[in-house]
Amino acid sequence: MDQEVKTISSDAEKRPEQVAKYTAKDSVFTSLFREPKYLLQLYQALHPEDHEATEDSIKNVTITNVLLDQYYNDVGFQIGEKIVILVEQQSSWSINIVVRCLLYLAQTYQEYFESTKQNVYGSKKLELPKPEMYVIFTGSRKTKPEYLYLSKEFFDGDDSVLDVKVKMIYDGKEGDIINQYVTFTKIYNEQVKLHGRTREAVLETIRICKDQNVLSEYLSGREKEVVDIMMTLFNEEYILKTYVESREKEASEKTKIGTAQKLYKKGNSIEDIADTLDVSVKEVEQWIGLVGV
């Protein structure tokens, strides 16, 4: 009985479990602002002075359907023909975000030129929508600069070379969509500390947010969808462990096959080879080609 219980327990430990993604907060961010209603709220949080913008006036230009060797960003949108706004969400501090914003902007402009049929090699002056770049930082940090500059961080302040200006946002204004998203990330972090990267942590986050009116409309309308995008079917550590073990097993088998074939050529019997390599006679026969695999 004890052996049976031990076996069941061992099997349960090996079984892959559904866990929250490491990118769970990113997934909610892109899902939230994929919808025109919340994209408009994001723009209004960045430009509260503009009372004329509507959902129809906003065009989503997020780079999503790209090849693996190209860049993609979190959220990008255009207001009329005047302005392009790129918004990134970061929970870990990296000054390289300034470079990434530059690359996102370059690719966004390239797609804009193609969609408006403008020729960058022609003599006619190009029409460029004004760019604005933002990073919503949800991690912990003692110093919180208002802006990051490419020239300052990479060229010793020499803006005659090339410059990019990125506005950093840490909390948003009380009650706006940015503030609600930042609050959501903090609640999620607290629940992960309590429950680990589990389904319970995700469900508790959603429950608390709905109770506190944090992204409540978004979460109430699509709770199952949000849970699905925050969870992953397999534990990444389990997948990695299984992959490594399978590769090790494959390499070990190849070594044994090579050894078996050498020993057989030297005149060793199949039985002795099987005994030496601690495998069955049938396996040895398959390896040296005496029977079909």
UniProtKB/TrEMBL annotation:
Domain of life: Bacteria
Protein name: Transposase (putative) YhgA-like domain-containing protein
Source species: Acetatifactor muris
